[in-house]
Every structure is written in C-alpha cells, then in structure tokens.
Amino acid sequence: MSRIAATFSRLQVSGTTALIPFMTAGHPHPDHTVALMHGMVAAGANLLELGVPFSDPMADGPVIQRANELALEFHVTLDDVLSMVQQFRQQDATTPVILMGYLNPIEVMGYERFAAAAAAAGVDGVITVDLPPEEGVPLLDALQPYAIDTIYLIAPTTNPARIAKIAAVASGFIYYVSMKGITGAGGLDFAAVEAAITGLRQQTTLPLGVGFGIKSGTTAAAMAAFADAVVVGSALVEKLMQGWESSATEESLLALAQSFIRELRAAMDGQL
Q1: Whether 60 is catalytic
Q2: Catalytic residue among 31, 49, 141, 263
C-alpha cells in the first residue's frame, strides 16, 4: 500500500480529515524548506504538497506567483526540489509528499528520468496542473512502475463525462477546486462544494480533497465536514512571505507555520 493510501486509510478509521499544507519549495529560502516540512508534520499536517517553482504558474494567484518568483531568484530547480524531498525522507519515512507544478520542468528533465529520480527521493504523488488526461499517458506510463500516484484537479466547471475520464486514470486522491478562479481567491460557496463532493463520490472511490480559497480555521473546518482532505496554500505561503520580509529567522518562520497549522488542525477536529 502506498504512503498516500495508507494515510487516508488510517485517517478514515479514526474519522479524521487530512490536512495538506502547500508551500513552494525554496520559499522563503531554500535552506528553510526541509525544516518547515518537518515542522508542519509535527504541528498536525498529514500529507505535504510541495510546489515546484515555475515562471508561469497559471493556476496560482498573486501570492503563490510571487513565491515562485522568489524561489526562482534562488535558482531552485526540479533537481533541487527532489533533493529537498530526499533530505526530508532521512527523518520521515511515512508522511506522503506530493509535488505540485507544471509540465515544463518535467519535460525538460525527461519523463523517465523524472520518474526514477522522484521515486528515489521518496515522492508519493504528482499534480501536473497543465497536463490533461488526454495528453498525460507518457508521464502516467513513466510513473506507474514506481507506484507514484497521479493526482488530478476537478473544477466546478468539469462536466460528468470528463469527471469519469479523470477518475479512470487518477490515483492517490482527487483534488477538487472549490471555486472558479485561481489559488487564494475568495467567495467560497460551501453548499455548492458539498454538493459537488457528494456527486463525485458516485463516480470514484478515491479520497476527495478540497483546495483553493481556504484561508482560516473556520473555512478549513467547514470543508472538513464533508471532504476527505483540506488543502491550504496561499494563506500559509503569505504568512511565510510576510515573516521573511520582516527578517524572520528560521526558528520564527517555523513557529509561524506551526502556529497556523495547529490552528487549522484544531478547527478541523472541532477543538476550537
């Protein structure tokens, strides 16, 4: 059983919704990424989503766009991101790590080389935002021998036929985009998201995660009431960015991240 499947299975038994924080690898500084990953797990994160810096992150809002730019100023590459995962694995052999990004860096590296390197580093899943299932077979074929999950996004505008197509090739979990728009935007309609998740459960047995626009313990708890996982990205990245701009040390950045993760975890568990 994969780390992703094992984690969701364990959480299902305990009745717990997974918390998946997103951070851009190399932001706010490459030297801090691995420590932040460990710190978020210690604070209550169940899976980690690590963004691969890219110059044109089209699905992301201004906060994560800026985080990508800053990471690229440090010349963080896909090889560097895999090295960070490998360092993380030296102390944590169980927490799933998912890479989220865009196709270009993978194409540059080459599908076979990427798949082998990702497996060696300890990557569990890949979200390639701009790779539709119709064009994803070569990457899927490269990842499958290493049992690396391919995680797809489904949007509010995705029609039933396309949902079925995505569900047929997805593994690990399905990531439902909670609204029309980019990461970090507002205007969540919880009833509409719940209805969409209910409908998706008729088409797949995979766990269903919800992300985009989740900014606080309140919104995370509302999503946790019906989703299998809650993904929080822009709100965390913004806190790290603000901390870095305030000349924060690694210790203070870690404390900042952990405080936010603990707040989310407590709200999702009904402890606030």
Answers
A1: yes
A2: 49
The alpha-helical segments, DSSP class H, found in the chain are 3-14, 33-43, 62-73, 78-89, 103-109, 111-121, 137-143, 160-169, 190-200, 217-224, 234-245, 250-268
pLDDT digits (tens, 9 = 90+) for 1-15: 899 999 999 999 999
Give the SS3 label for residue 23: strand
Q: For this structure, is 49 an active site residue?
A: yes
CATH architecture entry for 3-266: Alpha-Beta Barrel (3.20)
Return the pLDDT at 140: 95
Q: Are 86 and 60 in contact (CB under 8 A)?
A: no
CA distance 205 to 16: 17
* pLDDT number for residue 181: 56
The residue type of 264 is L
DSSP 152-212: -EE-TT--HHHHHHHHHH--S-EEEE-SSS-TT-----HHHHHHHHHHHTTT--S-EEEES
Distance in angstroms (rounded) separating the CA atoms of residues 172 and 229: 12
* Amino acid at residue number 187: G
Classified as helix, coil or strand, 146 is helix
C-beta neighbour count of 33 within 10 angstroms: 24
Distance of CA 165 to the CA centre of its chain: 22
- Which pLDDT does position 158 carry in this prediction? 92
The conformation of residue 76, written as its DSSP 8-state character, comes to -
**Angstrom distance (rounded) from CA 223 to CA 24:** 23
Active-site residue identified among 56, 60, 135, 251: 60
What is the average pLDDT across 33-53?
A: 98
